[in-house]
From TrEMBL, chain A:
Pfam families, sorted: Cytochrom_B_N_2
PANTHER family registered for this protein in UniProt: CYTOCHROME B
UniProt keyword annotations, A-Z: Membrane, Transmembrane, Transmembrane helix
Species name: Planosporangium thailandense
Database matches in InterPro entries: Cyt_b/b6_N, Cytb/b6-like_sf, Di-haem_cyt_TM
Domain spans labelled Cytochrome b/b6 N-terminal region profile: 15-241
Cofactor needs: heme
Membrane-spanning ranges: 48-67, 113-132, 144-164, 176-198, 210-233, 263-283, 337-358, 378-397, 417-435
Region (Disordered): 519-541
Catalytic reactions on record: a quinol + 2 Fe(III)-[cytochrome c](out) = a quinone + 2 Fe(II)-[cytochrome c](out) + 2 H(+)(out)
Lineage top rank: taxon: Bacteria
Source lineage: Bacteria, Bacillati, Actinomycetota, Actinomycetes, Micromonosporales
Protein name (Swiss-Prot/TrEMBL): Cytochrome bc1 complex cytochrome b subunit
Record EC number: 7.1.1.8
Automatic annotation (TrEMBL), chain B:
Residue intervals of the Cytochrome c domain: 69-150, 165-243
Positions of transmembrane segments: 35-55, 262-281
Membrane topology category: Multi-pass membrane protein
Pfam families for the chain: Cytochrom_C, Cytochrome_CBB3
Name of this protein: Cytochrome bc1 complex cytochrome c subunit
Length: 541, 284
């Protein structure tokens, strides 16, 4: 029997058909591949976090192959001379082996750490975008809540990873964490001893942190990320207002091929940036810190940046110890550490979680919102955001205030007091300035809509006064007054080249996407040569 | 004199004078008389002067040994550049500068060789390292002077004080004793009220050794009974090794810990990726 000829061109279609016969995936897949994503640079910020998470999973898996979270004491006999013969934990020794003996181990460690910092940075920047554009409003409150939880889980995950190598810096961090837990009233000592399996540091904590770091927290993170993106697909992406865009549609590019190509490329670029950071910038040089000993606390011991704001709040907190008398001769002491490290993070978790509902109540808004708002159009929210940001940045800077004080020759006490005063003064100031700036920008938008774009042409009136000529954006009536234009919630053209009156701005990032059309200006119009004139001479030749 | 002369002129006869040994002046010539009188006076002066010198305490009392040649040169420099604040005999001046009696040559050499002394602005929180005004030799001469004046800790000889030091042992000691102020990186760190632990980057072996011995500024003294001379060599060996050690992970960011890392992730990482988003996605 003659075998039928293999039809190479028809193979993919035939294979897909066979798969669909069995799994019935074509219609859901078609739906997914045809999903439309609006296109704006600010919508890619969350993707940075997603891609860093993928890099974290990849590099982290590599690290688990060599890292040993054991607190057994060993003596170092590796290639790093300044630690030769020094007793240390097996965890620290394996982290050193990863750095100096495993091929590619150091760059993997550094990429893992940089990716963690980038993950948290992207989460925060993405969160700011969502907040300032009102993307968290109904129906997306749940996704906002998941986002807030993702930040705090990332925080815990990062701290656990920071504590694992058992160098002097991570041990100092753990010691502070245990002190924070001890400061919780009534249950503090029980929480600490059960977590550490006795007194700090004990032999249990590294193993527990390890399983939390490589399994527990990443699994929850992964689940929440899946829920975050599932909700995004279900609820569809928000979009900026604009021509053809409404609260009931989504205008953008389809997932396949356009969006997938862009996202795939973007993933590669994020991966590349992390690899460059890991290869070019040294991070967390554990060999310089030495093994953890309770007596070793180096100057400039800081947590990673996303924990630094809590370090700052601790540094700024005045030493106010609260004492409650229980019965004669006895009292209960509440250490000052409790306020900046337990109460403050609690408030900072609860406030954002409930913010969408608080705002909806304040604005009396029950509708679903799929169109984004420009920050200037909601001055109260934008100003609140600026206020929160100012508060956070003061805490963040205070977290590194000893390094700043030392390197810029400032008194550390002055830095602390500046932080204390700044924490109270700067947020309200930021609120006020932002609020006024928003109103000013709104007013300018309205002004351009009413009177037109400034042309830069100054006209002198017969009475001697000077006025600037404006180019109206709408047609004018018989009196020369432009028709009223409503504000559409989107960018108002404010320059002549944006309305096509001048040479258009060149589009494209590195080189022009298209050659701009040659303008037909009188100055460039072909000029007929001047008629030749007879030469005038004196008559005397 | 005048009496002698007049007595001689109106004296008794010659024989009578001879009978008593000291009864009367022997008749001598005018020249002899004058000569003897001079000798007597001279003798008297010598006796009186001798008694005086024997009993009176001399201005050049020899209860301390004489200054060595180096110390004499050092004293000259001291009188010129240090005495204004520290007093003419290094006893200190109230509200201006402390006494230098007993600080030892190690302290003087540290302060002068690092340019901290003479202090340009003694009112500031801490005297800082600057271009030294004196050569190493001059600093040692001043050190010798202060040493001979009041004693105190001294540096061992030689400029290589890391020889025979165990780097690993030194690292352990450094992390326990030094890192809390000078930081794990030896880069220094902030103390309270504008004071600071300086970076150890420019410090020589002798300076580190002297600092441990003398405890300059806010630094505690690490005497030989706390950290033995061998341990001091270990620590110096570690510090100097770390300075020369390359950063295996790329640009070390000054080894300042997580603070510059936070700057890098935003200024390098986030900024470069944001440019990419602007490049690949719509802008308005």
């Amino acid at each position: 029997m003659k075998q039928s000829k293999l039809d190479l061109a028809g193979l993919p279609a035939k294979a897909a058909g066979e798969i669909d016969d069995r799994l019935q995936v074509s219609s859901p897949l078609r739906r997914l591949l045809n999903k439309v994503f609006p296109d704006h640079w600010s919508f890619l910020l969350g993707e940075i976090a997603l891609y860093s998470f993928i890099v974290l999973l990849l590099t982290g898996t590599f690290l688990t192959l060599w890292f040993d979270p054991s607190s057994n004491e060993v003596t170092y006999h590796g290639p790093y001379t300044p630690l030769q013969g020094i007793p240390m934990s097996r965890a620290y020794e394996s982290a050193l082996q990863l750095s100096f003996e495993v091929r590619g181990g150091l760059i993997m460690r550094q990429m893992h750490h940089w990716a963690a910092l980038l993950f948290m940075a992207a989460i925060v920047v993405h969160m700011l975008r969502v907040f300032f554009t009102g993307a968290f409003r109904k129906p997306r409150e749940l996704n906002w809540i998941i986002g807030v939880l993702l930040f705090w889980l990332g925080f815990v995950e990062g701290f656990a990873g920071y504590s694992l190598p058992d160098d002097a810096l991570s041990g100092t961090g753990l010691r502070i964490a245990s002190a924070i837990m001890l400061s919780i009233p009534v249950i503090g000592s029980w929480v600490t001893t059960s977590l550490f399996g006795g007194e700090f540091p004990g032999h249990e904590i590294l193993g527990r942190l390890y399983i939390a770091h490589v399994l527990l927290v990443p699994a929850i993170l992964l689940g929440l990320i899946a829920a975050h993106m599932g909700l995004l697909v279900k609820q569809k992406h928000t979009q900026w207002p604009g021509p053809g865009r409404s609260n009931d549609n989504v205008v953008g590019i389809r997932m396949f091929p356009g969006f997938a190509a862009k996202a795939g490329g973007f993933f590669m670029i994020v991966f590349g940036v992390i690899a460059l950071l890991g290869g070019l910038f040294q991070i967390n040089p554990i060999w310089l810190f030495g093994p953890y000993e309770a007596a070793v606390v180096s100057a400039a011991s800081q947590p990673d940046w996303y924990v630094m704001f809590l370090d700052g709040s601790t540094r700024l907190m005045p030493p106010w110890e609260a004492r409650f008398p229980l019965w004669p001769g006895h009292h209960y002491t509440l250490p000052p550490l409790f306020w900046p490290t337990v109460v403050l993070p609690g408030v900072l978790t609860m406030l954002p979680l409930f913010y969408p509902f608080i705002e909806a109540r304040k604005f009396k808004s029950k509708a679903s919102h799929h169109l984004l708002q420009r920050p200037r159009d909601v001055p109260t929210r934008t100003a609140l955001g600026a206020m929160a940001l100012a508060f956070y940045i003061v805490l963040l800077i205070s977290g590194g205030n000893d390094v700043i004080a030392d390197k810029f020759d400032i008194s550390l006490n002055a830095m602390t007091w500046a932080g204390r005063v700044g924490l109270l003064v700067l947020p309200p100031l930021a609120y006020w300035i932002t609020y006024r700036a928003c109103l000013g920008l709104q007013q300018h938008d309205r002004e351009v809509l009413a009177h037109g774009v400034e042309t830069g042409i100054i006209k002198r009136l017969p009475n001697g006064a000077f006025v600037e000529v404006h180019q109206p954006l709408a047609p004018v009536d018989e009196h020369g007054h432009p028709a009223a234009l409503p504000y559409a919630g989107w960018v108002v053209p404010k320059k002549m080249n944006r309305v096509g009156a001048l040479v258009p701005t060149i589009k494209g990032f590195f080189f022009p996407i298209e050659e701009p059309a040659k303008p037909a200006y009188p100055s460039e119009a072909p000029v007929s040569p001047a008629p030749t004139r007879e030469g005038i001479t004196s008559g005397k030749q | 004199m005048t009496f002698d002369d007049s007595a001689g002129a109106a004296g008794p006869p010659r024989a009578a004078r001879r009978g008593r040994l000291f009864a009367g002046p022997v008749r001598r010539s005018r020249l002899q008389r004058r000569l003897f009188a001079g000798v007597r006076l001279l003798l008297a002066l010598v006796v009186v002067g001798g008694i005086y010198t024997a009993f009176a305490p001399g201005s050049q009392a020899e209860d301390t040994p004489k200054l060595s040649e180096a110390a004499q040169l050092g004293k000259r420099l001291y009188d010129q550049s240090c005495a204004t604040c520290h007093g003419p005999n290094a006893q200190g001046v109230k509200d201006r500068a402390p006494s230098l009696i007993g600080v030892g040559s190690a302290d003087v050499e540290f302060q002068v060789e690092t340019g901290r002394m003479p202090a340009a602005r003694p009112q500031q929180a801490q005297v800082e390292r600057k271009q030294p005004l004196f050569t190493v030799e001059q600093a040692q001469q001043m050190g010798a002077y202060i040493q001979e004046l009041g004693g105190g800790p001294q540096l061992p000889a030689g400029t290589n004080l890391r020889e025979g030091g165990d780097i690993a042992k030194g690292g352990q000691l450094f992390r326990v004793n030094c890192a809390s102020c000078h930081a794990f990186s030896t880069n220094g760190g902030a103390l309270s009220s504008g004071k600071y632990a300086p970076s150890l980057k420019p410090a020589t072996d002798r300076e580190i050794y002297a600092a441990m011995l003398s405890g300059p500024q806010n630094m505690p003294v690490f005497g030989d009974n706390q950290i033995t001379p061998q341990e001091k060599r270990d620590i110096i060996a570690y510090i100097q090794y770390q300075k020369g050690d390359q950063d295996p992970g790329g640009f070390g960011l000054g080894r300042y810990g997580p603070v510059p890392e936070a700057l890098v992730i935003f200024l390098v990482g986030m900024v470069s990726i944001m440019f990419v988003t602007l490049w690949i996605a719509g802008k308005s």
